[in-house]
Amino acid sequence: MKYDVTVIGSGPGGYVAAIRCAQLGLKTAIIERYDTLGGTCLNVGCIPSKALLDSTEHYHNATHTFAEHGIKVTGVAPDFTQMIKRKDDVVSKTCEGVAFLMKKNNIDVHYGHGSFVSAKEIAITKSDGTKTQIQTDKVIIATGSKPASLPFITIDKKRIITSTEALKLKKIPKKMIVIGGGVIGCEMGSVYARLGTEVTIIEYMPSIIAGMDKDLGRELQKSLKKIGVKFELNTGVTAVKATSRSVKVTAKNHKKDTEITLSADYCLVAIGRRAYTDNLGLENIGVTTDERGRIPVNEHLETAVPGIYAIGDVIKGAMLAHKAEEEGTLVAETIAGQKPHINYNLIPGVVYTWPEVAGVGQTEQDLKAAGTPIKTGKFYFRALGRARASMDLEGFVKVIAHKETDEILGVHMIGPRIADLIAEAVVAMEYRASAEDVARMSHAHPTFAEAMKEACLAATDNRSIHS
Question: How far apart are CA 104 and CA 89, in angstroms?
């Protein structure tokens, strides 16, 4: 079998790259080592976690806000088995959708572990141990990432778990310790906190979601505390020991120089992810990786070997599904002779807690560190009629603009439906809009999106109308 392009990995980056290659008339194959397409995102990441986040938010509202809305409910209890079943069904149907797209676009799917024999030959080892080999002109490596750990932690997948195991527990734990206050830790911590689990997040940095604008971390921590999440910030884990029924975590607060010991049913290790480039046969083609397993690429995402490209979590940059998708499209179009471009500054980051959190562009702390003259505008959702009607009063929209040109340099949000609302900021910044440009655009009333307009008004000579 001979292909124009072969994609190794069928996550969002891989399958999007394959589809775009096929659309451009290239004979395309995709290799997936697992039994279903979709990679981490669809199977054990973005999609299943959002399914559980939505289910637990419905339960939380039934027990905390329905009465205020005039809805009387009695005997409300979580059916965790059904929640997991629904999550699995969402995953199954989504993965089936990707398989359909492969057929629709005449993309050959090969199941098995792909590895390089040479730059133009790939061996595929199937689950039964049998091997096949294909030839290809170009290759796109899109093998994604896997959960990272610490050298002294042994993840047994029973008591010391990753997000993968956290998505399929058999029952709701009484206590859970989460190591890491990043996106995954906050999302999964909120899932179980809503269900009544006593959740403690241990974070080495002085704030949660430390890579985002500091105002967002502070506001999210306030919100998570309201559903019972406890925090140990400025704290580094020193030991994790598991028994058949529990786990003990020892940590040290490096600011206070004090040690703590916590016990729980489970310890979720959520300190990030590392590139999955194991056993790809990269040494057979002369492609090297850095200390984190990532593959160096040029501006076209091509490796040191001509015709071999890498995208998504296996290269530097944010480990985001939508980043991988854009990179998959870029490589496909580059191979076809086009001149695509990605503005990495304008790839938004989202945390799917409730309230949701999102940011795009530069943070206030980064801009100040760079000496950029800025002005900011902030508008709180509690001042919006739509937010009051839905009882979603937490959070704000923060717009940062250049003090002299008024160009929007960063937008940082926490509140209701922020994951969707951030797209308005991305569009505005792609067209290099000023804060006044957005402030003068009509926004439907009453909507959550009015917060964006009001924040831009606030950034433009402090002209916010409703605050």
Answer: 22
**Considering only CA atoms, which of 229, 225, 246, 248 is closest in space to residue 238?**
248
Single pTM value for the model: 0.96
- Which of the residues 300, 402, 445, 466 is marked catalytic? 445
Q: Which CATH architecture group holds 355-459?
A: 2-Layer Sandwich (3.30)
Q: pLDDT (tens digit, 9 = 90+) per residue, 401-458?
A: 999 999 999 999 999 999 999 999 999 999 999 999 999 999 999 999 999 999 999 9
Task: For the domain covering 2-147+274-344, report its CATH number.
Answer: 3.50.50.60
pLDDT, tens digit (0-9, with 9 covering 90-100), for 312-353:
999 999 999 999 999 999 999 999 999 999 999 999 999 999
Span 271-285, average pLDDT: 96
Q: Where in the chain is the domain with CATH 3.30.390.30?
A: 355-459
341 is catalytic: no
- What's the alpha-carbon Rg for the chain, to the nearest Å? 23
DSSP code for 407:
B
Region 160-271: CATH code: 3.50.50.60
Query: Range(s) for CATH 3.50.50.60 in the chain?
Result: 2-147+274-344, 160-271
Distance CA 300, CA 21 (A): 15
Q: Directed axis angle between helix 80-104 and helix 12-23, to 10°?
A: 20
Report the C-alpha dihedral over residues 150, 152, 154, 155, rounded to 10 degrees. Answer: -20
